[in-house]
Amino acid sequence: MISRQHFGRPNRMVGLLLILNLFIAMPAQASFTIEDLLGGLKRTSALQSRYIEEKYLSFLTEPVVSEGTLTFRPPDRLERQVLRPKKETVIIEGNFVSLQAVAGDPPLKVRLSDHPPLEALATALRALFAGDKVGFLAIFTPHLTGSKKAWSLELRPKTPDLAKTLELLRLSGKDDSLESIEMVESNGDRTVTVLNPKAGT
Amino acid sequence: MRLKTILPLVLAYGLLGMLALVTARAVNMTTDLSFVFPENASSDTALLMNRLQEGPSAGVIIIGISGAALDEIAELSNRLATHLIESGQFDFVSNGSVTSPREGLGRLFSKRYLLNPAVTPSEFESGLLADSLSQNLLDLTTASGSARKDLLAADPTNRTEKILRYWSGARNWGGLWLSADGKTALLTARSAQQAMDLDHQAATIELIERTFLEAKGTSAATLEMTGPSVFAARTSEVIRGDIQNLTIASSIVVALLILLAFRSIKLVFAMVLPLGFGLCVAALAVQLLFGEIHGITLAFGGTLIGVAVDYPLHLMSHSRPEKGPSEAIKLIWRTLLLGVATTVIAFSPMTWSSFPGMAQLGVFAISGLIASACFTRFILPALIPGATAPSAQSWSRVKLPKSWRMPLRVGSGLLALAALTYLWSQGPALWENDLRNLSPTSPEMRALDRELRHELGEGDVRFLLVVRQDDQEQVLQRIEALTPGLQSLIEDGHLVGFDAPTKFLPSAASQSRRQEFLPDEGQLQQSLETALEGLPFVAGFFQPFLEGVQENKKGPFVMSQDFRATGLDSQLNALLFPHDKSWVGLIVPISLENPEALQDFAAANQISYLDLKEGSEELVAGYRQEAGLWLGAGVLLAILLLAAVLRSASRLVRVVIPICLSLLFTITLLSLFGAAFSLFHLLSILLVGGIGLDYALFFNRIGDGEDSRLRTLRANVFCAMTSVAVFSILALSAIPVLHSIGATVSVGAALSLLFAFLFSPMDSSTA
């Protein structure tokens, strides 16, 4: 009731709006920022996780599904082992990707920088786990939504070159853990990787 | 007054300079292996060695980058490849991950159902089709499979990949090429220019070096290059550099010796004129007769006629104060002429050699010597009128006590017998048979070449099967007919695989058979629909596949010209080429374990089997045999000429014996020091013979008294000193050929002087 009386006064109303504004804005900033996200993720540093990947391709009526393990070892080693339906090991280390379809075969070495979308993904993951905000701010425009309990970080390429092949990366998770990685390529092909972290590593 | 005396000389230098410029412009120098190949190369070995060294693959340059961290060399490798592609100077560049646009490859792959490995009819039946479709679906889950997804609609049976694998063997496509130890990044680049065009090669190599330097910045990485064109360019660079250094060093030594002998700078300048004139005339003569001059001819020929420095030495030594050069030349001309004529006669059979290099050398030596002698006779005296040499009286102290002569002569005879016995016991071990040791390439360059080639998975080609037919199609059909037999040799473990032109280009006959069993549109549509049942591909996605197969069924065959701009044409052209109105196809075994099995196979199928190493050794031996033949003929002719002119058995013996002894001891000494005799030793020995002949002839000249004898002695000693000095310098050369010549001639010249002196009449009265 009292507040209603105050409501009638324009100058007070402006003040209140300002306070209200601050009040609304402040919790969002205070509760969850990119820095918070990075700080939390960094603490987990090493990561090993099972994953299930769904790939939505323009020429398929349903996604192709695969599963395996994804491992990150600081500072920059990423390893993806596809276990089903077809074995393959991909290791990204430094600026090199090595592909090995059959164990024992000499791996095929490719430069990461020759495959922009993969490089973008690797940069994002490395930056994320290393808590390196500068790292991905250099190539992405980030947009964080949600709360600490359920966050989603959308990364859009800054450079037109990268934008030619990559539409966006969407990383989402809960608290200090990454739960899914979504990659949308410029041709519309979309890959969703869902992680189920195991305890400890 | 002063100016007047040197004016003719200045004028002569001006004219010679102009002649040298004209020569340098007119002469077209080559440095390939053609020097040692017979002209009418009927032998398959010669043909193939030539082909392998100079064929279309000759423009390929293999580049290695090492000496820095992997990431750095990889980055450099990519940058270098990119820049080289952008330069537009190359047909093909690749480092595995960056490859020059091969617009031809797309065109070629549009005919993928006609190419090897052969398609089978069952590939298009619904069963197998369904298998490969589901396989591709599975592959989409992997990174390597996803990379291929753009090809899927047109090529669901993965023909492109199968063909690439078939062509490239174990080598990775799409990955950066690294050496096995991972420390060297490898690139190949094929120059767009003619492989054997030296100037372009040099420019190409410089371009690569410059591009690398620009790309590397402050990195510690280093660049290595190999390939036939690099060999050629580097070698000519080395030859040029060596010739330049050796020429400068020898010129200084010769100038000092002349200065020592005659104490006149003017004479120093005058006395090299005959040689300079001789060199220009010789190079022009070879260019005129052969249309080109081989680098080795130039390097070696230059040393052969270096003996022309002796002519003005003799002339000046006999130029007495009261008479001058124009009188002196009359005194010695007969002897000089006899020496030149005998040498020319000895060289003349060489000009008929079936090896163009030899023939060039013969022409070079003959024309150079004649020109130098004529210059000494007709022009030089007019350039230095009144130039005289001091008395040679002090040389009277150089003598051999009469009582020593006989024992020394007999002693050297006995030593000669011992030397002959030693040489006899050495037998074939005396000879150098490895063709590569005749090439001016350094062993380091060859080692690097072997190493980089090995890393790129290209072995040394040694054994070959040669299929020769009337036309290209017949060659291809014949090789296809031989293929099952070769396959069973592979299964029996005699070899790991083989390269043949059919690997790339199937015969028209087999392409036509493939077209016949390619399904027509209706059939394929139907089996595709059956195969697609239950698979999640969107309708109509495989339309490009249906169309592609129909185009292949009805379209033109794959022809050799379809390989243009694919980066593969050089390989195909190296294995399949026209020769002598017929066509030749090569089958190159990979990792041959059992050459005999392949030899038996060749015999059973009536095709020729070649061992290039053995063949090239035979070639070299043949070359040497021919060289021996014309050397023998030359020596015989020379002796006949001497006999006819000297008309005295005792004088002939006095001239010939010291030459024979010095040659014999030169050979023995070199052999004792471990030299294996090559053709170039043989030629050097001929040169030693020519030098020795001059000494002996001059020592035996009928002079006009003691003063003349001493002047001759002085001239001979200075001639020998210059020869020994110049050829000792040559022996320092890094080029094996020049080194052998230098060693042989410096030893030979010293021995020639000693023996010519020992067997000469020791006072003017006995002459």
What does this entry look like structurally?
The complex is a heterodimer of chains A (201) and B (767). Chain A is α+β, with helices and mostly antiparallel strands and 201 residues long. Helix content of chain A is 32%, strand content 41%. Chain A contains six helices and eleven strands. Chain A has an eleven-stranded antiparallel sheet. Chain A is globular, with a radius of gyration of 21 Å. Chain B has 767 residues and is an alpha+beta fold. Chain B has helices at 2-26, 44-54, 70-87, 103-109, 126-139, 143-146, 159-168, 198-216, 228-262, 265-271, 273-290, 295-304, 310-317, 325-347, 356-383, 402-426, 443-455, 472-491, 508-517, 521-532, 543-554, 569-575, 595-604, 612-646, 649-672, 679-699, 706-730, 736-758, and strands at 29-30, 60-66, 90-94, 185-191, 222-226, 293-294, 463-469, 497-499, 576-579, 582-590, 608-611. In chain B, a hairpin with a 2-residue loop joins β9 (576-579) and β10 (582-590). The longest helix of chain B has 35 residues, at 228-262. Chain B starts with a helix and ends in a 9-residue tail after the last helix. The model of chain B has no long low-confidence stretch (mean pLDDT 83). At the A-B interface, β2, β5 and β6 of A face α3, α5 and α6 of B.
Report the uncertain regions of chain B: none
Quaternary structure classification: heterodimer
Number of strands of chain B: 11
- Contiguous helical run count of chain B: 28
Structural class of chain B: alpha+beta
Strand order of the largest sheet of chain A: 6-5-4-3-2-1-11-10-9-8-7
